[in-house]
Design goal:
about 625 residues, alpha/beta, seven-stranded mixed sheet, 20 helices, binds fructose -6-phosphate
Amino acid sequence: MLTASSALTTPPKTPGTHLPTYIFDTSDDVARHAAQIVAGVIRERNSRGQQAVLGLPTGSTPVGVYRELARMHREEKLDFSQVITFNLDEYFGLSSDALQSYHRWMKEHFFKHVNVPQDSIHIPNGAVSLEAIESHCREYEQEIERAGGIDILLLGIGGNGHIGFNEPFSPKGGRTRLCVLDPVTRRAASSDFFSEANVPQQAITMGLGTILEARKILLLALGEHKADIIREATEGAVSPRVPASYLQEHGEATVLIDAAAAQDLTAIVTPWVLGQVEFTDSLIKRACIWLSEKTGKALLKLTDEDFLNHNLHQLLRHHGPAQKIAHRVFRWLMDTIEYHPAGKEKKRIICFSPHPDDDVISMGGTLIRLVEDGHEAHIAYMTSGSIAVCDHDAARIADQVTEYNRMFGIDQERSKLVESTVLESLARKTPGQPDIDNVLKIKGLIRWGEAKAGAFKVGCKEEHLHFLDLPFYRTGTIAKKPISGDDVRIIRELIERVNPHQVYVAGDLSDPHGTHRVCAQAIFRALLEIEASRGSRPEALLYRGAWQEYALHEIEIAVPLSPGDIALKRKAIFMHQSQKDAALFPGSDPREFWQRAEERNTATAARYNQVGLPEYFAMEAFTRWNGVPI
Ligand code: F6R
């Protein structure tokens, strides 16, 4: 939560990059820092009676910045009456009131919360005709010029390095224009449009030339999915393949990122090559595992030469010789392997599953083990997951229930009425339109039924399954409400009722608006409230969502799984039929969910084995929550 009172310290400039880059612990810190810089420009202009000209992006990255600027307006009287804004881009072919239009997005996230005069807001018009587009773009450029140019421009970055919608190999001197979107960009936008096929092919964007003329630029990036491109843009050569790399030539461009987006930078991966570093236990672990992977040698086979040949002189000097360091790290890793993650004495545990399938996908094997070990294993499904069910599945169930009721002589009138409203609303629905309440209920029911069947497969009992249907998720659209006291209360009541010794939480914390992070935030708040009132709280272990695993140096508990465990886990995942074959939100990975889960678990075991630890078939990995709220 952003607060006015918490002081924000600027981290040191990151070494090893060609662009001034600052790494913040959290996405909130990035947002607050960026907002303070923008507010500084506005205040300075206001004090001289001049206008401040802002260049603005949309997307998931700047949401926190807009929220913080709105807070400053509300609580600190930050005055936007002299502000002129120019947005970077807009989808072509969308009217300004379309659900996915950037006009609408900007109004919802920013303009309706601050006092920028209506006629000072400029956003390219996506509804302009093809014939008029050239003159529209020319006028947009002239408006920027008339305003005196852009004082400060905020940018996000696409996974392919685009800024605005300047995709790879866009002209460096380009001006505002109609452009064709890359498949990568359209895929990234697909969840906003409920399918990639609905994403427009084209957009209007400021050109790279327009962008690079801004007097000051802040490039923001959040989350590990940006880590790779951030490394390329800040450490790589300037190249048309990575449009954001042109910022290296700007002079007044700064990069603000969170720790997740920074994770591939040299300063994080191999900081010892950049100068003197303090080798803490965690850095020793990281460096040693890195060296083992780099050399392809087991930890216990590393020699002094390996350390010296890979710039690890300092580590060897202060903590060596090689066998001493390697043995320490080997022991640490061995100690993470745990067959009985909740011990052998009977305990109560709750697995919190943000969506109705995260439980079995991410820790199905561990659930099997916990049940086998005799623990009382509860699963709390935090959201209905209704948004990820296809319309045809909802229609099928509505029809099936009508037939079922007819067959058994149950209340046919009412079921026919529900069926016809459902079918009519689905037939009328345009792409991207939210579902009516009855459809959402049916979709939620489908997922609940699947969740129960999946939980039974791993051995959980029906009375230990809890469907929380948290209010923050109940919007029927991709955009969710912020976490509220009600969400936290529902979780807290469950924890107080079950009184678990241990809870499992989906620890995907880097996507600032992702459902997993919001769920974790609510659970952490509930746990801290419980701790404050009782003086203690259950132990909280974190598991990663379906697609990625913790890095070896991060893992604190690894639960070994046999081929039999994995086969049973697969059956549990299969119970989620609405998410099989062609899920609505599969992301960019062509593999089915069960395949991703299995490859992830066997890869974790292989990684342990590669650094010279025992050879297990598969492993599920966890870290411990450190008690700090997010
Ligand atoms: C949006 C824009 C794009 C986004 C970029 C990152 O106005 O110009 O360049 O900034 O695609 O999007 P998010 O922030 O959603 O990851």
